[in-house]
Sequence to fold (167 residues):
Amino acid sequence: MRDAKAFLDMPAGCTNATGAQALAWVRSRHTEEQVDGSWRSMPGAGDLLRNQHQQEVLVELFKKLKSFDSPSDFAAKVHSLTSAFTLDDRLGLGDAIGLAWSARDLDLDDILRLELDVKLSRTEKGQSVLISRQPFDELLREANPEFATAIYDTPSAAGDETGSGTD
Fold:
């Protein structure tokens, strides 16, 4: 498969992807496949599939994180890879390591992955836009009522008399 805009070029079949290939794969929005010697757009390729790929990579990273025996082993690995990524200037490397290590206790089976039913629309300039067919708060209430109630049914979420949502 390939995507020139994402610098994706992977052979057919199962591949143990390099870091660069994995990054290209999660960035790909215009993925093509070769069928009978001709390149064609892959069915379903686009933003939603890209989001799915990004989620899959994050889940695999969490699995890898669980393989470290101690925070110091994990920190040593991260320090050896610092040239491979960029952090926000407000999040230091130590903070990022601590945040990642604290996420190691997450049970991956408890992660709720929601799918939005969307319709394709176009802006006045002809750009493609996906519009949700269902308000997100409704979707969240269906998927996890307890969490939705905690978010949407609190005084600060409802807003004050001015509707500003501030205390």
Observations:
- Residues 47-65 form the longest helix (19 residues).
- Residues 2 and 8 are 5 Å apart (CA to CA).
